[in-house]
Amino acid sequence: MANPTGANAKAGQAVRQLVDAPPKAGTNTVLVTHKTNIADAFGKDAGDVQEGEAFVYKAGSSGPAIFVGRIKMADWAAKAGK
After folding, report:
1. Long-range contacts of the stretch 50-53 (C-beta < 8 A, 24+)
2. For residue 3, what pLDDT is reported?
3. pLDDT digits (tens, 9 = 90+) for 27-71
4. N- to C-terminal Cα distance for the chain?
5. pLDDT of 64
6. Which residues pair with 58 in a beta bridge?
7. Cβ neighbours of residue 79 under 8 Å, at least 6 residues apart?
8. Number of other CB atoms surrounding residue 40 within 10 Å
């Protein structure tokens, strides 16, 4: 949703910065956010994100995180054996 104050762009930029920040050694980072923030952070290719879906990124050794893939809600259930 468009926001004339630019708040969406700022939120998207903040999400992108969190994704690009390498986690501390021996840990992973999990971010939970809303569709608008994901679309603002990752562009139109992320605009169709669905409820419960995850985007997986690997920390880059130098530079931005690398997109690994998407895990849809049905995939979570299948992996859990349900």
Report:
1. 52/76
2. 54
3. 999 999 888 899 999 988 888 999 989 999 998 888 899 999 999
4. 35
5. 92
6. 66
7. none
8. 23
**What is the C-alpha to C-alpha distance for residues 57 and 4, in angstroms, rounded to an integer?**
30
Task: Judge contact between 41 and 19, C-beta under 8 A.
Answer: yes
63: left (phi over 0), alpha (psi -120 to 50) or beta: left
DSSP label of 30: -
Q: Residue 20 class from Cβ within 10 Å (0-12 exposed, 13-18 middle, 19+ buried)? A: middle
Distance CA 57, CA 31 (A): 11
Q: Would the pLDDT of 17 be above 80?
A: yes
